[in-house]
Amino acid sequence: AKGLAYLHHDCSPRIIHRDIKSSNILLDANLEARVSDFGLAKLLEDEESHITTIVAGTFGYLAPEYMQSGRATEKTDVYSFGVLLLEVLSGKRPTDASFIEKGFNIVGWLNFLATEDRQREIVDQQCEGVQPESLDALLAVAMQCVSSAPEDRPTMHRVVQILESEVMTPCPSDFY
């Protein structure tokens, strides 16, 4: 989240990555996440809010408005980040066969569950040791990020704020 926030808000020119997915997030020696593979990235000059281009990226992570119009914005990266969060929470790829056979991708499945207030069912059972409040906060952030309306998606700065305040609590570790 911090890496995308930097690309969108703090570097000059700003960068739209266009291919945020699990295989493009690498861990360094300290297990800190790093954004990688800038092969599809585009620069936003000064006051530009979007770039129009041939649609590129990985199916399952692409924002619907980007697939329809070819207009890439920071909000299309936010959508992809939300899909990435759902992938982490569910333990399933965005186009996992269990979703596809029901006619959904991971976002469609989440939206289906949410209509019945069952969105917590998307969380992998292996997350049972995680504090329920943290899971709920992560799920809420993911749901905001994959909103069908780009204007309803948070900025990556806001995502970082939410994650730092509601999810990321220091915990002792023997790893370090």
Automatic annotation (TrEMBL):
Cellular localization per UniProt: Membrane
GO cellular component, one term: membrane
Superkingdom as given in the UniProt entry: Eukaryota
Topology relative to the membrane: Single-pass membrane protein
Pfam families: Pkinase
Major localization listed first in the record, in broad terms: membrane
Single GO molecular function: ATP binding
Keywords: ATP-binding, Kinase, Membrane, Nucleotide-binding, Phosphoprotein, Receptor, Serine/threonine-protein kinase, Transferase, Transmembrane, Transmembrane helix
Annotated ranges, domain Protein kinase: 1-168
Protein name according to UniProt: Protein kinase domain-containing protein
Originating organism: Opuntia streptacantha (Prickly pear cactus)
